[in-house]
Structures are given as structure tokens and as C-alpha cells.
Amino acid sequence: MYAIVEIAGQQFKVSKDLKVYVNRLTNEEGSKISFDKVLLLDDNGSVTLGAPAIEGASVEAKVLQHLKGDKVIVFKKKRRKGYKKRNGHRQYLTQIVIEGITAAGGTKKAAAKKAVVAEEAATEEVEAPKAKKAAPKAKKEATKE
Predict the structure, then answer these.
(1) Rounded to whole angstroms, how far apart are CA atoms 124 and 126?
(2) pLDDT in 10s for each residue of the chain, 145 residues
(3) CB-based burial of residue 89 (10 Å sphere; 0-12 exposed, 13-18 middle, 19+ buried)?
(4) Which of 43, 46, 61, 82 could in theory staple to 96 by disulfide, Cβ–Cβ 3.0 to 4.6 A?
(5) Strand, helix or coil for residue 69
(6) What is the pTM for the complete model shown?
(7) Residue by residue, what is the 3-state secondary structure of 1-22?
């Protein structure tokens, strides 16, 4: 079982007992968090899509530690101008471990709606775009010497 969940503005594919580094969260170390914005849920082949999120589904996690990521070097240069700037930063991260995925209330309504929309699109007749007429070619002038 896995889920695609939005955490701190980014989407992650998570499963049980997976350790994930996310952007810094405000929770304390050792505290438990619940993420309600589950976008997709796969339970042994039965996929549930959210529109945009699955109602009732959630992902429980525990904050392990707050840390800083590896240093990222930002180097700017303009050739032949003598312009060079070197800068860098270390991103603030939080390490979490996924404790469980609950799918209470998750249904396949979103997947059924997509199938109906796909069938309607297939039955509609689509006209081919009309071909544009080519511009007349310029005539070559005959020159006498």
C-alpha cells in the first residue's frame, strides 16, 4: 500500500515505515503529525484518485529530527565580462517516518468520473482542422543582358 501525499507544498510517494526528508515543519521532535491531503491511494492494485484530495484518507507520521541539508553552491558567471559570484545555502529539513496510511471513507468515485468523461470525449466527433492555403510564390524575373 502506498499513497501520494502533499507535505509542506511538495508531493511525496510514501508507504509504511518509510523515512522522508521534507521542508522544515513547525512540529517538535517526537510529535505525531497527520497529513489529510492525500492525492492518490493504492491498496494492492485498487487505485483511488482524489479530486483533488481523497476525503477521509490520511497519512500519520512521526517527526524524527530537524536538520540541515547538504550545502548547495550557487555560482553565477558571465563570460568575457569578469563577473563571478559564488553563493550557497543549506536547506532546513525535517526527517519524518511514516507510521500508517488510513483510507477511511476512500471510494472510487473519482476514478469512475474520469472513465465517464473519457467515454464522452471518445464519442464526440472532432472535425479535422482546415488546411491553410499556401501563399503564392514570388515569380522570378527574367533578366536580359
Answers:
(1) 6
(2) 999 999 999 999 999 999 999 999 999 999 999 999 999 999 998 999 999 999 999 999 999 999 999 999 999 999 999 999 999 999 999 999 999 999 875 444 444 444 545 555 555 555 666 666 666 676 667 676 6
(3) exposed
(4) 61
(5) strand
(6) 0.65
(7) CEEEEEECCEEEEEECCCEEEE
Long-range contacts of 44-52 (CB under 8 A, 24+ apart): 44/1, 46/108, 47/111, 48/103, 48/106, 48/107, 48/108, 48/110, 48/111, 49/110, 49/111, 49/114, 50/110, 51/110, 51/113
What does DSSP assign to residue 93? E
